[in-house]
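Researcher: Go.
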Amino acid sequence: MDIFEKRPIIKFTGNISVHKEDLVVNETPLTVFLNKKELGTIVCSPYAQKELVIGFLAGEGLIRKLSDIKNYFHREKQEVVWVETLDSSAEMENFLGRNFGSCCGKGRPSLYFKNDSDQIAPLTVNTHFSAIELQSLIKQLDEESKTFKLTGGVHSAALADNKQILVKYEDIGRHNALDRVLGYTVINEIETGDKAVLLSGRISSEMLIKAARIGTPLVVSRSAPTGLAIDLAEQLNITAVGFARGNSMNVYSHAERIVQ
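Model: Structure:
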């Protein structure tokens, strides 16, 4: 299945209609089994599934590094992934059998903040980015978001150094896009202490926590942060930047990392 496809539409302009074709994004359910138990189903764009699954597991604290995975098997036609970890006693009771949709929230248990805060230590890196560099990176994210330009139906997330985007993913769900970035860093053992996460959508608390798990000290978005995300950014020593558009941006936490 492709990430998008053509569909017939009737387009109205005023009271005049014409028959045309439009590009629409596809979504698919991907069911994940962890250590022979059904973990849940992720509704996602149909590509880069290994990065998504590994990033999701890492983002939920179920694995920490690639070597934690003993076996990985993807049956694409059935849209099912089996993962076996070296530690089969990983805490899963809050996740088993859940559906993680493509919408803004994933219906995670209300206690996830405590679980995540127990696992994540504040970052200690002292990387600096210039304001001009960040503005250039967000511009690059916009320019490279090709599926969004064609369909208007996806979010983007990327990993960047202080000069260029290193990897970028688009997905119907902004959580999925960032999970793929996390999966990419785990699979390729990327050093992230001097990197930034770039987002097209809102910086929610969940997105901030995922960035903290990636280990990046900087999260930059074209959109707004939430109050809880700012609180977590302060607590975890992460610089949160919102409304990065054109030559303007707002720094909400740890502004010392942004230099002129």
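Model: Residues 129-259 form a domain with the Cytidine Deaminase; domain 2 fold (CATH 3.40.140.10).
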